[in-house]
Amino acid sequence: MTDLELLELAAKAAGIPDGYWNCEYHDHGHGEYWNPLESNENALWLAVKLKLSIKNGEQDLGINVWFVHSKDQLIKVHEICGDDPETAVRYAIVRAAAEIGKGMK
After folding, report:
1. 99/69 Cα distance (integer angstroms)
2. Which residues contact 63 (CB under 8 A, 6 or more apart)?
3. 10, pLDDT greater than 90
4. At 45, which helix (H) or strand (E)?
5. What's the mean pLDDT when you consider all of the chain?
6. CATH number, domain with residue 67
7. Can you give the residue range of the structural domain that contains 62?
8. Cβ 59 vs Cβ 45: under 8 Å
């Protein structure tokens, strides 16, 4: 899945209207660009909004993001941290949100 597809599905899961997330998204009275793949603030907002659970991996220094699927099934998204753990966490959050977005009509 491309970054654009991930962002589209993550925005859908977060309830951001079509066309607003990739330009200026106005939230709380001020406009800002919304891109949780690049912004720690946007990624944290997304994780809180979707009630994602984030935990460091125990054996391979990866990051795990857990969420409950609409079918009451616990889903885990795993991302290897490498040299850039912040990017890994952002991608894991967005990938989890995209999975949620896929399940929405």
Report:
1. 9
2. 54, 55, 56, 57, 78, 79, 81, 85, 88, 89, 92
3. yes
4. helix 40-49
5. 78
6. 3.30.2120
7. 3-102
8. no
